[in-house]
Write a structure and sequence with these properties.
single chain, 289 residues, mainly beta, Jelly Rolls, eight-stranded antiparallel beta sheet, 5 helices, 16 strands
Protein backbone atom coordinates (compact mmCIF):
# COMPACT_ATOMS: atom_id res chain seq x y z
CA UNK A 1 0.00 0.00 0.00
CA UNK A 2 1.29 3.43 -0.90
CA UNK A 3 0.44 5.90 1.83
CA UNK A 4 -1.00 9.23 0.82
CA UNK A 5 1.18 12.21 1.72
CA UNK A 6 -0.63 15.41 2.59
CA UNK A 7 2.32 17.73 2.10
CA UNK A 8 0.58 20.87 3.36
CA UNK A 9 -0.36 19.31 6.69
CA UNK A 10 2.91 17.40 6.89
CA UNK A 11 5.00 20.56 6.73
CA UNK A 12 2.77 23.42 7.93
CA UNK A 13 3.33 24.19 11.64
CA UNK A 14 0.27 26.47 11.58
CA UNK A 15 -2.03 23.47 11.34
CA UNK A 16 -3.38 23.26 14.93
CA UNK A 17 -3.13 19.49 15.00
CA UNK A 18 -0.19 19.14 12.65
CA UNK A 19 3.24 17.64 13.30
CA UNK A 20 5.42 19.14 16.03
CA UNK A 21 8.12 21.48 14.64
CA UNK A 22 10.43 20.44 17.49
CA UNK A 23 10.46 16.90 16.09
CA UNK A 24 10.36 17.52 12.36
CA UNK A 25 12.65 20.55 12.10
CA UNK A 26 15.61 18.18 11.80
CA UNK A 27 13.95 15.90 9.23
CA UNK A 28 14.54 16.78 5.55
CA UNK A 29 10.89 16.15 4.62
CA UNK A 30 11.01 18.18 1.40
CA UNK A 31 13.97 16.20 0.12
CA UNK A 32 12.47 12.88 1.19
CA UNK A 33 9.32 13.64 -0.80
CA UNK A 34 11.38 13.78 -4.02
CA UNK A 35 11.17 10.23 -5.47
CA UNK A 36 14.67 10.38 -6.89
CA UNK A 37 16.39 11.70 -3.76
CA UNK A 38 17.29 8.21 -2.48
CA UNK A 39 18.34 9.59 0.91
CA UNK A 40 15.68 7.84 2.96
CA UNK A 41 11.91 7.48 3.18
CA UNK A 42 8.89 9.36 4.55
CA UNK A 43 5.38 7.95 5.09
CA UNK A 44 2.21 9.60 6.33
CA UNK A 45 -1.36 8.42 6.87
CA UNK A 46 -4.23 10.77 7.70
CA UNK A 47 -7.13 8.40 6.83
CA UNK A 48 -8.74 11.05 4.58
CA UNK A 49 -8.23 9.43 1.19
CA UNK A 50 -11.47 7.43 1.34
CA UNK A 51 -9.55 4.14 1.15
CA UNK A 52 -10.69 2.72 4.47
CA UNK A 53 -13.85 0.94 5.49
CA UNK A 54 -14.65 -0.42 8.94
CA UNK A 55 -12.10 -3.03 9.97
CA UNK A 56 -13.83 -6.24 10.97
CA UNK A 57 -11.14 -8.91 10.93
CA UNK A 58 -7.65 -9.53 12.25
CA UNK A 59 -6.54 -10.35 8.69
CA UNK A 60 -4.11 -7.66 7.42
CA UNK A 61 -6.23 -4.93 5.81
CA UNK A 62 -5.00 -2.03 3.68
CA UNK A 63 -1.51 -2.51 5.06
CA UNK A 64 -2.63 -2.78 8.71
CA UNK A 65 -3.13 -5.63 11.18
CA UNK A 66 -5.69 -5.27 13.97
CA UNK A 67 -7.05 -6.76 17.19
CA UNK A 68 -10.84 -6.83 17.44
CA UNK A 69 -12.38 -8.56 20.41
CA UNK A 70 -16.13 -9.20 20.24
CA UNK A 71 -17.91 -5.86 20.36
CA UNK A 72 -14.83 -3.87 19.37
CA UNK A 73 -14.72 -1.81 16.16
CA UNK A 74 -12.29 0.31 14.18
CA UNK A 75 -14.20 2.77 12.00
CA UNK A 76 -12.92 5.66 9.86
CA UNK A 77 -14.53 9.06 10.33
CA UNK A 78 -13.88 11.61 7.59
CA UNK A 79 -14.47 15.32 7.40
CA UNK A 80 -17.27 16.65 5.23
CA UNK A 81 -15.10 19.71 4.64
CA UNK A 82 -12.00 18.63 2.78
CA UNK A 83 -8.67 20.36 3.05
CA UNK A 84 -9.47 22.74 5.93
CA UNK A 85 -7.71 21.33 9.01
CA UNK A 86 -7.35 24.78 10.59
CA UNK A 87 -11.15 25.10 10.69
CA UNK A 88 -12.13 21.48 10.97
CA UNK A 89 -9.54 20.39 13.49
CA UNK A 90 -8.52 17.26 11.64
CA UNK A 91 -9.30 15.74 8.25
CA UNK A 92 -10.14 12.26 9.48
CA UNK A 93 -9.61 9.76 12.28
CA UNK A 94 -9.95 6.09 13.08
CA UNK A 95 -12.38 5.58 15.95
CA UNK A 96 -11.49 2.53 18.08
CA UNK A 97 -14.43 1.49 20.26
CA UNK A 98 -14.75 -1.03 23.08
CA UNK A 99 -17.97 -2.36 24.55
CA UNK A 100 -18.50 -3.00 28.25
CA UNK A 101 -16.68 -6.35 28.31
CA UNK A 102 -13.95 -6.82 30.91
CA UNK A 103 -10.42 -7.04 29.46
CA UNK A 104 -11.47 -6.65 25.82
CA UNK A 105 -8.84 -5.25 23.47
CA UNK A 106 -8.80 -3.20 20.29
CA UNK A 107 -5.63 -2.32 18.42
CA UNK A 108 -3.95 -1.49 15.14
CA UNK A 109 -0.43 -1.88 13.74
CA UNK A 110 0.98 -0.72 10.42
CA UNK A 111 1.64 -4.13 8.91
CA UNK A 112 2.76 -3.33 5.38
CA UNK A 113 6.51 -3.60 6.08
CA UNK A 114 6.19 -7.16 7.31
CA UNK A 115 4.26 -8.51 4.32
CA UNK A 116 5.68 -6.46 1.44
CA UNK A 117 9.35 -6.69 0.58
CA UNK A 118 11.04 -3.30 0.50
CA UNK A 119 8.48 -1.49 2.66
CA UNK A 120 10.06 0.82 5.22
CA UNK A 121 10.69 -0.13 8.82
CA UNK A 122 11.92 1.89 11.77
CA UNK A 123 15.21 0.68 13.25
CA UNK A 124 17.24 2.14 16.12
CA UNK A 125 20.75 0.72 16.32
CA UNK A 126 24.15 2.04 17.34
CA UNK A 127 25.75 4.07 14.56
CA UNK A 128 22.58 3.66 12.47
CA UNK A 129 20.65 6.49 10.83
CA UNK A 130 18.30 9.20 12.20
CA UNK A 131 14.63 8.28 12.62
CA UNK A 132 11.42 10.24 13.32
CA UNK A 133 7.91 9.12 14.33
CA UNK A 134 4.83 11.01 15.55
CA UNK A 135 1.10 10.39 15.89
CA UNK A 136 -1.92 11.98 17.55
CA UNK A 137 -4.34 10.08 19.77
CA UNK A 138 -7.19 10.78 22.18
CA UNK A 139 -9.53 8.99 24.57
CA UNK A 140 -12.87 9.71 26.19
CA UNK A 141 -11.98 7.71 29.33
CA UNK A 142 -9.16 8.22 31.85
CA UNK A 143 -10.73 6.53 34.88
CA UNK A 144 -8.16 4.73 37.03
CA UNK A 145 -8.46 1.00 36.46
CA UNK A 146 -10.15 1.40 33.08
CA UNK A 147 -7.43 2.54 30.73
CA UNK A 148 -4.74 0.38 29.27
CA UNK A 149 -3.02 2.15 26.37
CA UNK A 150 -0.02 1.38 24.19
CA UNK A 151 1.22 3.92 21.60
CA UNK A 152 4.55 3.72 19.81
CA UNK A 153 6.68 1.27 17.82
CA UNK A 154 6.36 -2.53 18.00
CA UNK A 155 8.17 -5.50 16.48
CA UNK A 156 6.97 -7.75 13.65
CA UNK A 157 5.21 -10.37 15.79
CA UNK A 158 1.50 -10.59 14.95
CA UNK A 159 -0.50 -8.07 16.96
CA UNK A 160 -2.52 -10.04 19.51
CA UNK A 161 -4.85 -9.45 22.42
CA UNK A 162 -1.99 -10.05 24.83
CA UNK A 163 -0.13 -6.99 23.57
CA UNK A 164 -1.38 -5.55 26.87
CA UNK A 165 -1.80 -8.09 29.66
CA UNK A 166 -5.23 -8.59 31.19
CA UNK A 167 -5.61 -6.04 33.94
CA UNK A 168 -3.38 -3.62 32.01
CA UNK A 169 -0.36 -4.52 34.10
CA UNK A 170 2.24 -5.18 31.41
CA UNK A 171 3.19 -5.83 27.81
CA UNK A 172 3.45 -9.43 26.66
CA UNK A 173 6.41 -10.72 24.61
CA UNK A 174 6.89 -7.72 22.34
CA UNK A 175 9.81 -5.49 21.47
CA UNK A 176 8.41 -2.02 22.06
CA UNK A 177 9.50 1.61 22.32
CA UNK A 178 6.88 4.22 23.16
CA UNK A 179 4.22 5.28 25.62
CA UNK A 180 1.88 3.39 27.96
CA UNK A 181 -0.94 4.17 30.33
CA UNK A 182 -1.09 1.36 32.88
CA UNK A 183 -4.53 0.48 34.22
CA UNK A 184 -3.75 1.60 37.76
CA UNK A 185 -2.39 4.98 36.59
CA UNK A 186 -5.59 6.37 35.09
CA UNK A 187 -4.37 9.42 33.19
CA UNK A 188 -0.59 9.18 33.73
CA UNK A 189 1.60 8.42 30.71
CA UNK A 190 4.92 6.57 31.04
CA UNK A 191 7.71 6.51 28.45
CA UNK A 192 9.07 2.96 28.26
CA UNK A 193 11.02 0.41 26.23
CA UNK A 194 11.10 -3.37 26.31
CA UNK A 195 12.57 -6.39 24.52
CA UNK A 196 10.38 -9.36 23.69
CA UNK A 197 12.22 -11.51 26.23
CA UNK A 198 12.31 -8.80 28.89
CA UNK A 199 10.07 -6.63 31.02
CA UNK A 200 9.13 -2.94 30.59
CA UNK A 201 11.94 -0.53 31.39
CA UNK A 202 10.86 2.98 32.33
CA UNK A 203 12.59 5.87 30.58
CA UNK A 204 10.37 8.31 32.51
CA UNK A 205 7.36 7.59 34.71
CA UNK A 206 4.44 10.02 34.73
CA UNK A 207 6.00 11.98 31.88
CA UNK A 208 2.66 13.40 30.75
CA UNK A 209 -1.05 13.45 31.56
CA UNK A 210 -3.63 12.25 29.07
CA UNK A 211 -6.80 14.33 28.91
CA UNK A 212 -10.29 12.89 28.48
CA UNK A 213 -12.61 14.39 25.88
CA UNK A 214 -16.32 14.08 25.15
CA UNK A 215 -15.59 14.65 21.45
CA UNK A 216 -13.81 11.38 20.63
CA UNK A 217 -16.53 10.53 18.14
CA UNK A 218 -16.23 13.84 16.27
CA UNK A 219 -13.45 15.64 14.41
CA UNK A 220 -13.29 18.51 16.91
CA UNK A 221 -10.02 19.93 18.22
CA UNK A 222 -10.42 18.83 21.82
CA UNK A 223 -8.55 16.09 23.62
CA UNK A 224 -5.77 15.33 21.13
CA UNK A 225 -2.22 14.66 22.29
CA UNK A 226 0.80 14.15 20.06
CA UNK A 227 3.25 11.35 20.85
CA UNK A 228 6.61 11.22 19.12
CA UNK A 229 9.94 9.39 19.14
CA UNK A 230 13.18 10.33 17.44
CA UNK A 231 16.55 8.60 17.17
CA UNK A 232 19.74 10.57 16.59
CA UNK A 233 21.43 7.82 14.60
CA UNK A 234 24.05 7.21 17.28
CA UNK A 235 22.60 5.90 20.56
CA UNK A 236 19.90 8.24 21.93
CA UNK A 237 16.13 7.82 21.57
CA UNK A 238 14.06 10.86 22.57
CA UNK A 239 10.39 10.82 23.59
CA UNK A 240 8.05 13.78 22.99
CA UNK A 241 4.52 14.61 24.13
CA UNK A 242 2.86 17.55 22.39
CA UNK A 243 6.22 18.56 20.96
CA UNK A 244 7.97 18.71 24.34
CA UNK A 245 10.86 16.39 25.25
CA UNK A 246 9.71 14.24 28.17
CA UNK A 247 12.37 11.50 28.26
CA UNK A 248 15.48 10.06 26.63
CA UNK A 249 16.88 6.55 26.51
CA UNK A 250 20.27 5.09 25.65
CA UNK A 251 19.65 2.34 23.10
CA UNK A 252 22.63 0.45 24.51
CA UNK A 253 20.92 0.22 27.90
CA UNK A 254 19.87 -3.21 29.06
CA UNK A 255 16.37 -4.01 27.85
CA UNK A 256 16.30 -1.66 24.83
CA UNK A 257 15.39 -3.34 21.49
CA UNK A 258 18.61 -2.31 19.75
CA UNK A 259 18.47 -3.03 16.01
CA UNK A 260 14.92 -4.41 16.06
CA UNK A 261 12.66 -3.74 13.05
CA UNK A 262 9.49 -1.99 14.24
CA UNK A 263 6.40 -0.16 12.99
CA UNK A 264 3.68 2.10 14.49
CA UNK A 265 1.13 0.54 16.86
CA UNK A 266 -1.88 1.64 18.94
CA UNK A 267 -3.61 -0.68 21.46
CA UNK A 268 -6.37 -0.09 24.03
CA UNK A 269 -7.46 -2.47 26.79
CA UNK A 270 -10.79 -2.19 28.62
CA UNK A 271 -9.84 -3.23 32.14
CA UNK A 272 -13.09 -2.58 34.04
CA UNK A 273 -15.74 -3.39 31.47
CA UNK A 274 -16.63 0.18 30.56
CA UNK A 275 -17.67 1.09 27.01
CA UNK A 276 -15.27 3.67 25.60
CA UNK A 277 -13.94 5.31 22.45
CA UNK A 278 -10.33 6.00 21.44
CA UNK A 279 -9.29 7.79 18.26
CA UNK A 280 -6.16 7.74 16.09
CA UNK A 281 -5.47 10.82 14.00
CA UNK A 282 -2.61 11.00 11.51
CA UNK A 283 0.74 9.32 11.89
CA UNK A 284 3.96 9.91 10.03
CA UNK A 285 7.46 8.48 10.11
CA UNK A 286 10.79 8.87 8.36
CA UNK A 287 14.28 7.43 8.41
CA UNK A 288 17.44 8.19 6.48
CA UNK A 289 19.29 5.44 4.65
Amino acid sequence: MTLRVNTSQATDPQCPLGPSPSIWCTCPVSELLVPTSNIGWFKREDWSNGDFAAMTTVTPYKGYNCILDAGATIIPLQSAVRGTPATNGILAQLSMTLDATHDDTVGLQYWGPFVTSGSPLLVMKQHGTPMWFETIFRTETVVTGTNGLLIGLKDETVLAEGAIADGGAGIVSNDFVGFVVWADDGDSVDAIYQTAAGTPQTAKADCATITATTDATSLALSGWHRYGITFDGIRTATYYVDGVVVATADILASGFPDGEEMSPVWVAKDNLGEAQVKAIGWWQAAQLY
